[in-house]
């Protein structure tokens, strides 16, 4: 695709954007280029400030988060006076500015979603996208929501700890991070810290190994509000639990707020010490249940607010009725629909929507680990056996890492268990593999497509014995 296939700039200051696009095209992948730079234009150049118009909020996020440096560099190479770029959403584009190039295969939507995970604040661990503004409250989560509000009003006083539990994709992380963001907003002087229990465990192990326990203790005891996600993963980790117990007491006694999330109620978390369990139970325990149809519809509508090509209410209703038990899947399906209709530049028909949604539903948990391994081996055309062996051959290492990633991402399996199932590997190897694939997915559209394909295979797979 050539730069000339893109919209001619509105106020192009001597073909600046066309020339910049040529340069950007050299430094980003083709699929990314054609997906993200289509329908972009310089709408204004004012001294050193470039106003870049983009077609929608997704492209805006993506360009400003991921390609900002590329864009700035390319522009400055041509026009050194450029200092900054502002991205604006241009809702209507004149008809004669239709691109003439053919549309390339899309970068799948899943990639865009992962982007936002990059945004966590270093100091607090909080992601600014998780706020109450975008959190829909319905009968299924209103109790959890009002407990959260009480905590915000009086941190460390009303409900301590606040313990929120729910199945996967029902809004635990969103809610507990929103509490953190809100406390920070109300009182920026408060130190708030969010992390998962696994990160806590790793941090603990590392401090023990490096003889830095005093720093570890100091660090966690200084927070005014500590938020620990997915606490179920401390099960079976005795030393971590002990450390957490002491940390808890210390924070609690100084009236610091503690917030936990878990996939089950404390009494059902097995392999935790009873004294820790009783700490979990000592404050407010509240669950989030499954959203009803109206809430699912409202959630979908809330995600459409900023969009130019919003699907019709009938489509939204269809999605809301087809996907019932997981908000993450609900979002995923909606995003695929939006992405596909943007690429096709038309609304999808019912059959297309049905197919998309079918492929978007994550494999059910009833599929065994073995089935995942088998499916991935078949997909990459390798012998299943070799995955368990010690070999580091490239053609084996990648599928093995993909399996680890899928087991973690789609099945929420713990790192040690994944390691054990794949030839007794250490959990740090699994974490490394997970992070590697996650990172690669951001830049490698082929890998994104491979993973989507595997997901489809897993959806259609016949279950095998465990
Ligand atoms: P969990 O931590 O329970 O697995 P998340 O908090 O990660 O679930 O939520 C999954 C996705 O659904 C996130 O993108 C989140 O923003 C969205 N989500 C969850 N609950 C709501 C809600 N009540 N309103 C709007 N979006 C929600
Ligand atoms: Mg979560």
Shape: globular
CATH topology of the largest domain: Rossmann fold
Question: What percent strand?
Answer: 5-15%
| Relevant CATH superfamily of the largest domain | P-loop containing nucleotide triphosphate hydrolases
Q: How can the largest sheet be summarized?
A: 5 strands, parallel
Query: So what's the CATH class of the largest domain?
Result: Alpha Beta
List cofactors, ions and other ligands: adenosine-5'-diphosphate, magnesium ion
Mean pLDDT across the residues is: 83
Strand order in space, largest sheet: 5-6-7-4-8
Q: In DSSP terms, counting alpha (H) and pi (I) runs of 4 or more, how many helices?
A: 20
**Sequence of secondary-structure elements:** HHEEHEHHEHEHHEHEHEHHHHHHHHHH
**Second-tier CATH architecture of the largest domain:** 3-Layer(aba) Sandwich
Number of domains: 4
Classify the helix fraction into a percent range: 40-55%
Distance between the termini: 48 Å
Number of strands: 8
Low-confidence region ranges = 1-11, 92-117, 462-466
Protein structure class: alpha/beta
Round the Cα radius of gyration to an integer and report it.
Answer: 24 Å
Ordered list of secondary-structure elements with their pairings:
Elements: H1 16-27, H2 30-36, E1 41-46, E2 49-54, H3 57-78, E3 84-89, H4 109-115, H5 142-153, E4 162-165, H6 172-186, E5 192-196, H7 197-209, H8 213-221, E6 225-229, H9 238-253, E7 257-262, H10 274-280, E8 284-287, H11 293-303, H12 313-322, H13 327-344, H14 350-360, H15 369-380, H16 384-388, H17 394-411, H18 415-421, H19 427-443, H20 445-460
The structure holds adenosine-5'-diphosphate and magnesium ion.
């Amino acid at each position: 695709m050539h730069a000339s296939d893109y919209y001619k700039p509105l106020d192009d200051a001597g073909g600046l954007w066309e020339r910049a696009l040529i340069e950007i095209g050299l430094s980003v992948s083709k699929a990314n280029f054609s997906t993200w730079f289509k329908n972009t234009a310089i709408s204004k150049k004012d001294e050193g400030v470039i106003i870049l118009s983009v077609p929608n909020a997704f492209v805006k996020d993506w360009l400003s988060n991921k390609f900002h440096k590329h864009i700035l560099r390319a522009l400055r190479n041509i026009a050194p006076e450029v200092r900054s770029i502002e991205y604006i959403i241009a809702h209507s584009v004149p008809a004669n500015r239709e691109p003439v190039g053919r549309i390339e295969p899309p970068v799948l939507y899943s990639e865009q979603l992962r982007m936002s995970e990059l945004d966590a604040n270093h100091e607090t661990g909080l992601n600014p996208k998780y706020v109450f503004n975008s959190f829909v409250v319905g009968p299924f989560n209103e109790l959890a929501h009002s407990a959260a509000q009480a905590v915000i009003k009086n941190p460390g006083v009303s409900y301590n700890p606040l313990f929120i539990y729910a199945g996967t994709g029902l809004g635990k992380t969103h809610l507990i991070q929103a509490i953190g963001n809100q406390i920070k907003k109300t009182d920026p002087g408060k130190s708030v810290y969010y992390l998962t229990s696994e990160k806590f465990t790793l941090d603990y192990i590392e401090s023990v190994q490096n003889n830095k326990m005093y720093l570890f203790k100091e660090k966690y005891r200084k927070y005014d509000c500590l938020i620990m996600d997915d606490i179920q993963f401390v099960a079976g980790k005795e030393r971590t639990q002990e450390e957490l117990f002491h940390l808890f007491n210390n924070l609690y006694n100084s009236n610091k707020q503690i917030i936990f999330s878990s996939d089950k109620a404390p009494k059902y978390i097995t392999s935790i010490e009873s004294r820790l369990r009783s700490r979990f139970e000592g404050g407010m325990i509240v669950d989030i249940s499954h959203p009803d149809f109206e809430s699912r519809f409202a959630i979908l509508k809330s995600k459409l607010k900023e969009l130019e090509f919003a699907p019709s209410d009938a489509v939204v209703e269809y999605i809301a009725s087809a996907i019932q038990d997981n908000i993450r899947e609900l979002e995923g399906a909606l995003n695929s629909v939006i992405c596909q209709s943007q690429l096709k530049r038309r609304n999808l028909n019912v059959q297309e929507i049905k197919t998309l949604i079918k492929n978007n539903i994550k494999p059910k948990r009833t599929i065994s680990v073995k089935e995942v391994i088998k499916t991935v081996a078949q997909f990459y055309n390798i012998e299943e056996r070799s995955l368990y062996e010690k070999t580091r051959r490239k053609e084996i290492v990648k599928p093995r890492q993909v399996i680890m990633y899928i087991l973690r991402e789609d099945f929420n399996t713990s790192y040690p268990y994944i390691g054990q199932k794949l030839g007794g590997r250490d959990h740090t190897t699994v974490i490394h593999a997970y992070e590697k694939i996650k990172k690669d997915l951001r830049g490698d559209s082929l890998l994104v497509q491979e993973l989507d394909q595997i997901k489809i295979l897993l959806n259609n797979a016949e279950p095998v014995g465990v």
